[in-house]
What we know:
The chain crosses the membrane at residues 12-30, 42-64. InterPro entries: MFS_trans_sf. This protein has 80 residues and is an all-alpha fold. The protein folds into two domains: 1-36; 38-80, no CATH class. It has helices at 8-36, 39-72. The longest helix has 34 residues, at 39-72. It is flat, with a radius of gyration of 19 Å.
Amino acid sequence: MTLAPESSGIMLSLNNSVIQVAMAVGAGIGGGAAKQISLYSVTWFAAVGIALAVAAVILSLRYVRSTSSQRSGRQSILEA
């Protein structure tokens, strides 16, 4: 939005549309998976997805810490 503030409405609506499509696709995949395999197994797939999301957050925070400390030459706010 910083690059093109006049287009912020379009960008926000496109972002919302993509979120809605992603939820619909996820619901479709989940429904198909529930039909093919037991609901107990679906929970394990969800656990794997959560583990991947947590790993992505950890990697992202490490990247932010390394780039911010390199730029400023001091510790980042995110560092504990």
